[in-house]
Amino acid sequence: MKIIACIKQVPDSEAKVRADNGAVNWGDAPLVINPFDEYAVEGALQQKEATSGASSSLSTVTALCIGPESAKEALKHALAMGVDDTILVSDPALNNIDTVGAARVLAAAIQKIGGVDMVVFGRQTLDSGSGLTPAQTARVLGWSMLGLAGQIKVEERSVTVDRVIEEGRQSVKAKLPAVISVVQSIGEPRYPSFMGIRKASKATIPVWSLSDLGISAPEAIVKRAELVNPPARESTIEIIGGESPAEIAEKLADKLIAEKAL
After folding, report:
1. Which of the ends of the chain has fewer CB neighbours closer than 10 A, N or C?
2. pLDDT confidence bin for 56, thresholds 50/70/90
3. In a domain, 86, yes or no
4. pLDDT, tens digit, for every residue of 211-220?
5. pLDDT of 120-137, one tens digit each?
6. CATH code at 113?
7. In this structure, is residue 184 part of a structural domain?
8. Which tops the pLDDT comparison, 227 or 174?
């Protein structure tokens, strides 16, 4: 079985976003692998372990990422976790793509890889958080989409997942190939091993451009016209004192009534 884990490099979760000339600015926040995508890598590795040996050939996991040169670090993190191969799709024309554009580029890369049985995503990313790219990628590929999976089981050429939804659990089944997005219930992401870290440090990560994929840059359907910082909020603090709790409470009640808060 050939499995693709789609990942993304994002600013650290502690980053403070602000508007800068109408655009998003994350400041000097460190860039890391999207935390939800660690679960995608974990889910893909679980399937590799479950299906390897079930046929004459071993299963493999390839981490696929769209991003700048710095995104190689996110791919190295996936390598250290245990994936077999990595591919970075990087092109200056992709700097401002939306989720639809990302889906088209990912689908083109998946088709170029060829022979893929399963594509695994995290449920969403920290930077945009829309969670749309998995379904949009499935739509472009023409494959089944199984979202919010907390458990995955492959039998012959079919995959069954337990979806984690508000009402509880929902079991759904589809034929392979398929696109799956996973949630935290898939299992805690494994820590990078020492050997994995050494492998990642020495790895040469292939970089594909749009010309390598044979496509042009997708035009963004959703465009941000302008982004502004929220207005500054002024607040004052007044400490109400008194000789007793009852007196303080009475003064507080009078103040709230005067301010029309009650």
Report:
1. C
2. very low
3. yes
4. 999 999 998 8
5. 999 999 888 889 999 999
6. 3.40.50.620
7. yes
8. 174
For the chain, the three-class secondary structure string (H helix, E strand, C coil) is CEEEEEECEEECCCCCCEEECCEEECCCCCEEECHHHHHHHHHHHHHHHHHCCCCCCCCEEEEEEECCHHHHHHHHHHHHHCCCEEEEECCHHHCCCCHHHHHHHHHHHHHHHCCCCEEEEECCCCCCCCCCHHHHHHHHHCCEEEEEEEEEEEECCEEEEEEEECCEEEEEEEECCEEEEECHHHCCCCCCCHHHHHHHHHCCCCEECHHHHCCCCCCCCCCCCCCCCCCCCCCCCCCCCCCCHHHHHHHHHHHHHHCCCC
Please state the domain count of the chain. Answer: 1
Q: Record the pTM.
A: 0.84
The CB density around residue 223, as the number of other CB atoms within 10 Å, is: 8
Q: Containing domain of residue 52, as a range?
A: 2-213
Query: Does some domain include residue 231?
Result: no
Domain presence at residue 254: no
